[in-house]
């Protein structure tokens, strides 16, 4: 039988004691590690909760900024200076109590000290009483890729200095924001033909008293017309809130008997399809021929027409028109809105600029 000596027993006891101590220390380290990990997990969880709460608060308090708006003073001044360097024309519209706004074209000659100084012509009656009057300014800037960027802003007149009888310098307060926005009369769209339900063109007819003859029974057959699938003597090239461009083939132009002189006035019947409502928009429009152009090779004619007045069918009649409300800035709001919707549709479908 094999017995351990006292010394060997002590060594064995020391061995098991060492193992016990090591195990106890390891357990304590494991417990400490678990406690540290638990504490870190709690800290991380608290941080995540704080971040989520801060994100929710920021989202709730965030101010929506429309695409294309310029809000920082530095960027606003840089944009105005770019327009000045490119000699961009500014169309300045003066706010008025009446619907019709007076407008003129100006060029920026200086930007600084909180104002934009413009040189404007054709303001014979301007005076100090215009100080503080609000204006809308439309302009465009060419970006690095040579794309035309359209902008507008509203501000107030801060100073006026007549230079000559025809030219004045106007100081306008630098605006708080600039919107990427094109004047609706300038936003032209070439709509798909399926949206055009009909076009008819007559020469204006006058009565003996100098007023327009608004009884369409007296106008006779249209000189030019477009009826889908039946007749295409005229085509709508583009449309905006302020006018339309019509294309007429050589022979149709000749057969119409029209001379197409600048300033000629034509009555236009324009039927547009509005897919959002599933209804037709009918417009009776007196237009001025602004820009006739005859192609040198084909002899086809393009007619740039500006809206002057809008008429409506008299209640209870199917042939007599009456004048509608005066047009503000020669724009038809319904047509401008229609053109804008078509523009957005084409942009979404084809990515048009």
UniProtKB/TrEMBL annotation:
Which terms are listed as keywords in the entry?
Membrane, Transmembrane, Transmembrane helix
Regions that span the bilayer: 32-56
* Originating organism: Desulfovibrio psychrotolerans
Can you say what this protein is called?
PilZ domain-containing protein
Say if the entry is tagged with keyword Transmembrane helix.
yes
């Amino acid at each position: 039988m094999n017995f351990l000596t006292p010394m060997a027993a002590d060594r064995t006891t020391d061995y098991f004691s060492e193992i016990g101590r090591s195990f106890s220390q390891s357990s304590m380290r494991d417990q400490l590690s678990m406690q540290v990990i638990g504490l870190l997990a709690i800290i991380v969880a608290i941080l995540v909760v704080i971040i989520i709460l801060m994100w929710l608060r920021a989202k709730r308090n965030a101010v929506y900024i429309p695409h294309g708006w310029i809000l920082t003073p530095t960027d606003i001044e840089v944009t105005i200076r770019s327009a000045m360097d490119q000699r961009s024309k500014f169309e300045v519209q003066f706010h008025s109590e009446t619907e019709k706004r007076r407008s003129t074209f100006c060029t920026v000659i200086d930007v600084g000290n909180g104002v934009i100084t413009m040189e404007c012509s054709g303001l014979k009656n301007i005076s100090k009483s215009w100080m503080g009057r609000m204006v809308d300014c439309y302009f465009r800037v060419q970006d690095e890729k040579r794309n035309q960027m359209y902008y507008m802003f509203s501000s107030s007149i801060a100073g006026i200095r007549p230079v000559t009888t025809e030219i004045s310098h106007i100081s306008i307060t630098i605006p708080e924001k600039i919107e990427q926005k094109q004047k609706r009369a300038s936003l032209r769209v070439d709509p798909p033909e399926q949206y055009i339900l009909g076009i008819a063109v007559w020469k204006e007819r006058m009565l003996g008293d100098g007023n327009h003859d608004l009884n369409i029974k007296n106008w006779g057959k249209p000189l030019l017309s477009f009826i889908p699938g039946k007749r295409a003597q005229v085509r709508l090239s583009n449309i905006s809130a302020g006018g339309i461009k019509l294309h007429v083939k050589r022979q149709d132009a000749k057969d119409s008997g029209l001379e197409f002189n600048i300033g000629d006035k034509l009555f236009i019947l324009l039927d547009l399809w509005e897919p959002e409502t599933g209804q037709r928009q009918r417009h009776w429009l007196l237009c001025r021929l602004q820009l006739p152009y005859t192609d040198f090779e084909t002899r086809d004619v393009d007619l740039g027409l500006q809206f002057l007045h809008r008429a409506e069918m008299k209640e209870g009649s199917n042939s007599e028109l009456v004048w509608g409300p005066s047009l503000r800035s020669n724009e038809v709001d319904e047509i401008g809105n229609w053109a804008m919707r078509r523009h957005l549709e084409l942009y979404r479908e084809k990515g048009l600029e």
